[in-house]
Amino acid sequence: MSPTHETLREALGAYALGQLDDPELVEALEAHLGTCDGCRAELDEHTAAAVMLDTLREEDLGSSAAPPAELDDRMEAVLKDLESRRKRRWVPAAAGTLVGAVAATVMSFVVLHDEPVDTPTVIAVPRVDVTPGVTATVGLVDHTWGLELKLTATGLPAGETYDVRIIGQDGTSYDAGEFIGVGDRTITCDMSSSVLFADATRFIVESADGSKVIWGDLTT
Fold it and tell me: What is the CA radius of gyration of the chain?
C-alpha cells in the first residue's frame, strides 16, 4: 500500500538529514515532492536547517568544546517536532516543554547573528461559525507557498479527530491537516495548505463523520 500524505510529510525531516533509511519510502517521497507544493516548501525549511548543522565548524561554536555526538539526533528530533506542528496536531504542554528544552540544547552550540526576524502578519477572519458548545477564532497568514490557518478553539470533544480543509475559488478542496480535540481546554493549531491566499474562499473543520463544526468565509 502506498504511504499516505501524512506519512510522507512526517518523513521530510529525516529525508533532509539524509537519515531516511527506507528505500521505498524515499522513492515515494521523491515522487510526491514532484507534485506537492506544500511539502516542497516544508522540505526547503528542513534542508536549510540541515545545511546549517552540516556546516558548523568548531570555531563557530559558542565555546571551544566540540558539539556532542548526539547533536544530529537532537536536531532531527526538533525537525520532526516542527514537522508535527506543521501537520497541525495538538501537542500536550509537557511535550512542548520537552521539545523546547531539546531545541535550547541544540541552539546553545550555534552562534546566532543579530538579525531581525520578520513576524508574519496574521489576518483575522471576522466571522467564524461554530456548532453549539464550540468557540473558535481563526487567523490567516499569506505565504508564498500557500495559506496558513491559525485556529484557536474550545469545546471540541476530547479524543475526536478533526479534519481541516480550505476550499479554492474553483471548488477544489485542499487538505490543511488534522488535529485531536481536547474538550473544554483551549487548543491552538497552525494548519497549512498549498492553496494561495488569493485563491481561497472558505475553510471547514469537520468531525470524523463529516459534520461541520467550525467554518467560515475567507473573502469579503
Answer: 19
pLDDT one-digit tens code per residue, 155-210: 999 999 999 999 999 999 999 999 999 999 999 999 999 999 999 999 999 999 99
Biggest CA–CA distance in the chain, Å, is: 59
Nearest to 205 by CA among 197, 216, 190: 216
- Is-above-0.85 flag for pTM? no
| Residue 63 burial (CB count, 10 A) | 9
In the block, residue with C-alpha cell 538579525? 115
CB 149 within 8 A of CB 166: yes
CA angle 18, 108, 20 (to 5 degrees): 10
State what percent of residues in the chain have pLDDT above 90.
Answer: 41
**What DSSP string describes 95-147?**
HHHHHHHHHHHHHTTSPPP----PPPPPEEPS--EE-TT-EEEEEEEE-SS-E
Packing angle of the helix pair 37-54, 23-33 (nearest 10 deg)? 120
> What is the per-residue pLDDT across 22-53, written as a single tens digit (0 to 9) for each?
888 888 888 888 888 788 888 887 777 666 66
Q: State the Cα angle at 207 between 202 and 209, rounded to 5°.
A: 115
